[in-house]
Amino acid sequence: MAEVVLKDVMKAYGAVHAVKDVSFTVEHGEFVALVGPSGCGKTTTLNLIAGLIPLTDGEIVIGERVVTDLDPKDRDIAMVFQNYALYPNKTVFNNLAFPLQMRKQSREAIDKKVRDAAKVLDITHLLDRRPRELSGGQQQRVALGRALVRDPAVFLMDEPLSNLDAKLRVQMRSEIKRFHHNLNATIIYVTHDQLEAVTMADKMAVMHGGCLQQYDTPANVFANPINTFVASFVGSPAMSLIPVDVATEGGGTVLRGASGWTLPLSAINARKAQGSSNGKAVLGARHSTLKLHRTALPGAVPGKVYSVEPTGDVTFAQIIVDAEVVNISLDPSVVIQPDEAVWIEFDQDRMHLFDGQTTMALKAAE
Ligand SMILES: Nc1ncnc2c1ncn2[C@@H]1O[C@H](COP(=O)(O)OP(=O)(O)O)[C@@H](O)[C@H]1O
Ligand SMILES: [Mg+2]
Question: What is the pLDDT of residue 78?
């Protein structure tokens, strides 16, 4: 049973297309993250689902109902914002009770719902306090509770953790995941932080320039990014991307870098590269798939060390290849210096190839 369906959803502000032809389906109980850089249309998409702004075109279904023209209050949704906006003069209990009192529910029903929600969120001991007597994380839990008491079909959350400090954010990340797990709730969660999306969501909808780029599980998006934008947006440090020419050398297909190095391709990568629309490609690789060598090696790509960042468990290095920065992770025991000449070995099974013109992932023709 699909809980939320967006069909060709469009929102224009004059000439600005904030959201363009976005379609995706959120199943009942799924946690979906809308993720992308600032200004890509995440909040607009969420507000369209909530009914806070009207659609320019398209259709939205929640549960079994087309809600495109319904008021927010008739959509069976609850929102949690970055700015939790608790009532400062009300106790936590009354902050939670207020949406129910507005709906004229009985005292007993309200009391039960508030206490149930407080239990789920582990804030029972805070019910008599006022917001100023709470930490940021506790306030955020009360904001979640206020959505929870309404027992909506769908929770909509817009960057609910971005006002918290880094440590609390990581803690609340697992609390919201737990909230989702315990309630089996349908959640649509907006974040600009790809790590939040990857760690929390069942599926992620990656947006860029108002367009949906890819909608899939974090694992699939990470393993098979559909284009260079998604490839570089998801994962940290970012996937390295090197523009190359597709060429032939000694009867085999190779990639040729701007400075003249060549990288012979495996059979399947050769078939992918041959599908390039303009004879150019972009070679992508994640930091953990690369091997560093101190001496030249056939098929390894020459570069120069730019910076070295030991983090304790792992050392990250930035290597300049042609004019591009290549991120690589190294065992902390490896000692390299800035400006040192190095060679990078790519893993043929884990490298990515994108079309030089369309930026789309190249597929091997059958
Ligand atoms: N009320 C508005 N009027 C005009 N342009 C808007 C309005 N709201 C959003 N936009 C534009 O739409 C685009 C998407 O905005 P938004 O959905 O807030 O992005 P995000 O939440 O991903 O940062 C941006 O270019 C923004 O400037
Ligand atoms: Mg936003």
Answer: 92
Question: Does residue 141 have its Cβ closer than 6 Å to ligand 1?
Answer: no
Is 237-355 CATH 2.40.50.140?
Answer: yes
Q: What is the mean pLDDT of the chain?
A: 94
- Name the DSSP class of 126: G
Q: Does 18 sit in the ligand 1 pocket, CB within 6 Å?
A: yes
Question: Per the structure block, which two tokens stand in for 310?
Answer: 């030991």
Q: Quick check: 1 pLDDT over 70?
A: no
Q: How would residue 200 be classed by pLDDT, with cut points 50, 70 and 90?
A: very high
Strand-pairing partners, residue 338, are none
Stretch 322-348: mean pLDDT:
96
Q: What is the dihedral of CA 253, 255, 256, 258, to 10 degrees?
A: 160
Identify the bridge partners of residue 157 per DSSP, sorted by sequence position.
80, 189
Residues of the chain with CATH 3.40.50.300: 2-232
Tens of pLDDT, residues 21-75 = 999 999 999 999 999 999 999 999 999 999 999 999 999 999 989 999 999 989 9
The token pair that represents 80 in the structure block: 């949690």
Q: Is 214 touching ligand 1 by the criterion CB < 6 Å?
A: no
- Degrees (nearest 5) of the Cα angle 51, 206, 171? 85
55 lines ligand 1 (CB under 6 A): no
pLDDT at residue 279, rounded to an integer: 97
The segment(s) of the chain belonging to CATH 2.40.50.140 are 237-355
Q: Given its phi and psi angles, is residue 192 left (phi above 0), alpha (psi -120 to 50 degrees) or beta?
A: alpha
Nearest ligand by distance to the CA of 158 = 2
- Both tokens assigned to 32: 């979906």
Query: In the CATH scheme, what is the code of domain 2-232?
Result: 3.40.50.300
The atom number, within ligand 1, closest to the CA of 36 reads: 22
| Distance between first and last Cα of the chain | 35
Q: Which ligand has the nearest atom to the CA of 36?
A: 1
For range 4-19, the mean pLDDT: 97
**295 in contact with ligand 1, CB cutoff 6 A:** no
The radius of gyration of the chain's CA atoms, rounded to the nearest angstrom, is 25
